[in-house]
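Section 5.1 Outputs to date
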Amino acid sequence: MSSPASGPRSGNRKVAVAGVALSDCGRVDEATPYALHAQAARRALADSGLDRSVIDGFASAGLGTLAPVEVAEYLGLRPTWVDSTSVGGATWEVMAAHAADAIAAGHADAVLLVYGSTARADIKARRRTANLSFGARGPLQFEVPYGHTLIAKYAMAARRHMHQYGTTPEQLAQIAVQARANAAANPDALYRDPITVDDVLAGPMIADPFTKLHCCIRSDGGCAVLLVADDHVPDLAKPPVWVLGSGTAVSHTTMSEWDDFTVSPAAVSGRLAFERAGVRPSEIDLAQIYDAFTYMTLVTLEDLGFCAKGEGGAFVEKGRLLRDGALPVNTDGGGLAACHPGMRGLFLLVEAVRQLRGEAGPNRQVHRPDGTLPHLAVASGTGGWFCSSGTVVLGRE
């Protein structure tokens, strides 16, 4: 790889999304995670129209002993700026925030974010089990002996919201139903058949109040996003989507340290992102929200300011989250229906950019009430059991 151009760099540059792409997704039995990283990276670079020699920054997490060193080596990159921040599902929004800051400050010109996982295939081939363990050291030692699983923590939080605000299982089920409806027109979605509220409620109980369809799917897949400084924009193959603002926040590790089960760290990251972008939640045309569980979508909508605290249950009714609803959410079907190979946050950015560019495809593209393409989108990732959050506001000219 040739070296990026040298010379003085501005400390106040605008940051654009130059390219986005998915690797093969869904059921991918004959590929390694490294191969999915490479496939997504090549496709994102092709989408940008830029040469790989411009890449001087690289961000990756979740693969390899020395991430992102191993993945960068596999891709043949020698970056001078790297990030391997790992905060669960929020990782990629946090990394995007870091990368945008680095590019704006002149510490990098073009940063590639890439992810890939064969979580589904690994279980099928018995290379791993379905159980997810964060270990039993540190603060977790006080919860692990009692069988306090990740899903149980989300379920406890959902139950608190139901108790405090009257949120119903039917309202939570609406989120899964609308996610599946959005996935119906997405050829890349793993599950596209329609479901009903009754289907969700009648499923096997996983952790009360979550039945199976309240929980994200398990799939294979990867994706990549290339962020660049504004001086690369004239060379792009497609119009840029701009990073307008971002925010990050962390909350707790142990449930006993969580001040309020009905408030996620998105309440902080979202506020910061909107303030820095200079926009209000009411101006957003579509939202891509991490949805490992239905409750995650509901409480994040509240915390981002799309509705008041406690009103999420009523907000998600009447098809508001559908592609043609009042606030299209997870327009690809999200982790509940489309793709969830692990840390899904980067997929949120890919879908947001595709929608803003107007390239989502027939019966899937979001339009504003006047028929024009969307102008503003927000992607908000959540990590752990509402332990971390990263929110990014994107816009087009």
